[in-house]
Amino acid sequence: MHIPPFATEVYFAQYEFTTPHILCASDCETLSIAELLALAGADPAELLDLRLGYTESQGNPALRAAAAALYTGVAPGDVVMLGAPEEGIYLTMRALLEPGDPVVVLTPAYDSLLNLAEHVSGRVNRWPIRPTPGGWALDLDNLERLVAPGTRLVVVNFPHNPTGYLPTLDEFDALIDIVARRGAWLLCDEMYRGLERDPVDRLPSAADRYERAIVLAGLSKTHGLPGLRAGWLIIRDPATRDALINWKHYTTICPPAPSEALAAVALRAHEPLAGRSRALIAANLERAAGFFARWPELFDWRPPRAGSVALVGLNRPSATAYCHMLAREAGVLLLPGSCLGYDDQSVRFGFGRAAFAAALAHYERHLEAGR
Ligand SMILES: Cc1ncc(COP(=O)(O)O)c(C=O)c1O
């Protein structure tokens, strides 16, 4: 069965490992195993003793308990460890949707949140986030119209990739109320939770707000550990959880043992890892704000409220053509908004990497040379 190209990953596969100056990464700066162990105060012998047999399909119980402890009302039994965060999106769509089931997806969206819903149900209504001067807004009246009786699933992602939007608590509760009144499921992708500019703005997890929420979380973004491929879903309903785990038997069966062991270490250092990422983003956002103020004719800057990325207006006929040219000619990588289903006059910037300042300075020299 046909599925569209995963435009974001196709683009990164082409450029990520050959372009020296990355300005659009969504993950935060990573660290070595030795650095991770030191940060968590863990003994390397723990890892050397690890046996490399199959692991439990639902995930290691101690690791599930550590993940559950990040929420207020979640039990270890509600957690399903994944082979990768990305797998959680696939499994959720497979477990919840039949062809023809109505789905509503917040757009623009990380490709699989939209494409897999379309692939499995074939009946997706998009709920576009609205640009405002200098920011973004949710159109809850539109959501009220889009979520009809019989809507099976609503898909959202906060903090949002690519806009960096974060609703207020009132907006978040109003959104959940709309979904709950229709009895729909809510897939809330919380991969960037913990990266709020101001921690007082951190939303409660949807898992702690709504019984029929399925929450996706993981260590790739906030914790800077995408190479671990560690992620989990929270699913309260046992029948849905079992159906999802059955799909998992067809994909990865169980999480990789070394990743589970390192994920358990990382969760012991949850706060220092998240704090390290937030500090990097804050410093890089300051640099970015200065940069965008110097290039108002080229960019329309909308600062993110949370997360590691922002979607920025680009005053060029085609952002796609511009980004390919920039990667080839200047060794600078930006992501065209079109990859994420947005218009072709926008680019995604990512602020979580340690080399952001040097990459931005390189890009600015390139812009000045062409002035
Ligand atoms: C919103 C969102 N969800 C899920 C994922 C998948 O995470 P991973 O690549 O770690 O599987 C990403 C990755 O960019 C993402 O941005």
Key attributes of the depicted protein:
4-stranded antiparallel β-sheet; Aspartate Aminotransferase, domain 1; 40% helix; binds pyridoxal-5'-phosphate; globular; Aspartate Aminotransferase, domain 2; 7-stranded mixed β-sheet
What does this structure look like?
The protein has 371 residues and is an alpha/beta fold. The chain has two domains: 7-31 and 271-369, Aspartate Aminotransferase, domain 1 (Alpha-Beta Complex), CATH 3.90.1150; 42-269, Type I PLP-dependent aspartate aminotransferase-like (Major domain) (Aspartate Aminotransferase, domain 2, 3-Layer(aba) Sandwich), CATH 3.40.640.10. Helices cover 40% and strands 16% of the residues. The chain has helices at 7-15, 33-40, 44-48, 61-68, 85-96, 111-121, 140-146, 169-181, 238-249, 257-268, 270-294, 319-330, 356-369; strands at residues 21-22, 79-81, 103-107, 124-128, 130-132, 135-137, 153-157, 185-189, 213-218, 231-235, 299-300, 309-314, 332-333, 335-336, 346-350. The protein has a seven-stranded mixed β-sheet with strand order 2-10-9-8-7-3-4, with helices on both faces. A four-stranded antiparallel β-sheet has the order 11-12-15-14. A two-stranded parallel sheet has the order 1-13. It is globular and about 60 Å long. The chain starts with 6 loop residues before the first helix and ends with a helix. The mean pLDDT is 97. Residues 26, 84-86, 110, 157, 161, 189, 191, 218, 220, 226 line the site of pyridoxal-5'-phosphate.
